[in-house]
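From the pipeline queue, job 12 of 40. The input is one protein chain; the requested action is below.

Action: predict structure.
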Amino acid sequence: MDKSCGGARKIRQNVIVMRHGDRLDNFEPLWTSTAKRPWDPPLVEAGKTRAFCTGRKIRAKSDSPITRVFVSPFLRCVQTAAEVVAALCSKDNNPAAISSDGVAVDPSKVKVAIEPGLCEVLNTRTIRVKSVPTNGEWGFKTPELEALFPAGTVDGSVKPVYKELPKWEEDQDCAKKRYAEVIQALADKYPTDNLLLVTHGEAVGVAVSDFLKDALAEVYEVDYCAHAHLTRSITYNGDQPCTAENLECLGRPGQNGVYYDVATPNT
């Protein structure tokens, strides 16, 4: 939303940080024993449906539409984002649609890019499979992943915040710091855009714990396709931003599938 105040112009930027949909290995545990890439499961069909319907809800709730989407390179996140983008860009916004199948999109509405900094926490605590590419050769092929997004929505000019993935056995606290830095960096890089970041559960937790104003939050559960909503006000003089407030997490525990306990810090 754009508001004028004297000679200045105010806008409100929104950033939604969202977990991927239902992953296959949590429904078929034996899948990892035969998969060529056991660290990178796809979505089940119910996960695609959940993602599309979540995208439709985000579109319906917001008076400030999402204009840019950034995605972890893991397949489950790319597939989730493909469904969400289709819902955000659908021309008719048919309330009966439950997936991107047959949905006509307007690619001018949203632009998408893969952001390595939004990737999964790369350690054995998070990726619990016997075989992982500890040498860093994860096999993510950007052109193949980009081909999964609705035609015309990929922005090939975007330069990622993280040019490469973190090293294997990433420290958990370092990963949380990474998520916070990437969320802030993307918001600062695109201050006139409303952003959707499709990532992993730990990142959604960070979006709450690091950006909840005047409170301490301990996140203990993040559902599939759960999302945290961050916002801030930015004031412009001419074309240059003169002040930008801190990103602040909105909502309450349990809202949008993110569950956490809140404590007021000692003053």
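Job complete. The domain at 9-263 is CATH 3.40.50.1240 (Rossmann fold).
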